[in-house]
Design a protein that fits this description.
CATH topology of chain A: Arc Repressor Mutant, subunit A
Largest interface: A-B, 32 and 32 residues
Distance between the termini of chain A: 48 Å
Strand order of the largest sheet of chain A: 1-3-2
Radius of gyration of chain A: 20 Å
Largest sheet of chain A: 3 strands, antiparallel
Oligomer: homodimer
Order of helices and strands of chain A: HEHHEEH
Shape of chain A: elongated
Structural class of chain A: alpha+beta
Number of strands of chain A: 3
Chain lengths: 112, 112
DNA sequence: ACAGCACGTATCGGTCTGCGATATATATCG
DNA sequence: CGATATATATCGCAGACCGATACGTGCTGT
C-alpha cells in the first residue's frame, strides 16, 4: 500500500469524509508534506472500495455543491492498523540500524 | 520511496552487501514479510545509484561466484533517516487516529 | 558421472499506481 | 462579468514492482 493510499485510509479513520476533505486531511496528517492529487485520490478510492476497505457513505449538497462522502469499513480499519504497525516496525528497524552504525574510519584525504 | 527500496537502503546501512545478500537481509529485516525479487532489486539499485544514495563498492569472487558489492553513501544515510522518520511519524498518526475513535454506535439490526 | 538445487548476476515485458492535464459545474468576491 | 475556490470525475503517460527468463558455477546425492 502506497503512502497516498495509506493517508486516504487514515483520513477516513476518524469520520466519513468527502473527496476534497480527504485531500485536506491527508495534507494535514502528513504535516503538509503530501498533497494528494485528485487523480490519485479517485484511483485510490476506487481500489479501496473494490477491496472492501472503504464504502460510499452518503451524498450531501453543501452551498449548492455536491459532496460525496466515503466511510471506512471494519475491514479497512483492521487493514489500517495492520499496515500502520508494519510501517512503524520497518521504520524502527531502519532507524535502529543507522544508529547502530559505528563511526566509520575516515577514508582519508584532505583531512589528513 | 517504496518499502522495497527502503529495505534495500536499510540493508546497506549496516555494511556493504552484494545483491543476494541484500535480498536475504531485506527478508530478515521485514520479519520474513517482504521477499525482494531480483527484478525489483536491480531496478531499485539502479535508481538509488542514479540518485547518489548508493554506489558500487567492490567485486569479489566467493567460491567461484562473482559477488558485486554495493555501499550506502552519506546522502543515502541522510535520506534513510529522513524517510524512516517520516514513515514512523505517519504510522504513529494513523494508529493514534484509530485509537482515538470512540466505539461507534451499533448501526442496529440483528442485535436489536 | 551426472542431475538437481542453491547461489549469483542480469534483462524484459506486463501491470498497477501516482500524477499532471483536462473537463464540467456552482458559489463567491471584486 | 470575469477570476478564484470548491467539488467531482476521466485520460494518458511514466515510474515501480514483479514474474519469467537466461546464463553460469559449485555442491550434494545417487
Amino acid at each position: 500500500m502506497s503512502e497516498q493510499t495509506f493517508l486516504v485510509l487514515t483520513a477516513l479513520a476518524d469520520q466519513p469524509m468527502h473527496g476534497y476533505g480527504i485531500v485536506s486531511a491527508a495534507e494535514e496528517l502528513s504535516g503538509g508534506r503530501v498533497r494528494l492529487r485528485v487523480g490519485t485520490l479517485y484511483g485510490a478510492l476506487d481500489r479501496l472500495t473494490a477491496d472492501g476497505l472503504v464504502e460510499p457513505d452518503r451524498d450531501e449538497v453543501h452551498q449548492g455543491r455536491l459532496r460525496r462522502y466515503y466511510r471506512i469499513t471494519d475491514a479497512g480499519l483492521s487493514e489500517l492498523v495492520a499496515e500502520g504497525s508494519r510501517r512503524e516496525a520497518t521504520a524502527r528497524v531502519a532507524l535502529d540500524r543507522v544508529r547502530a552504525r559505528r563511526p566509520r574510519p575516515d577514508p582519508g584525504g584532505s583531512t589528513a
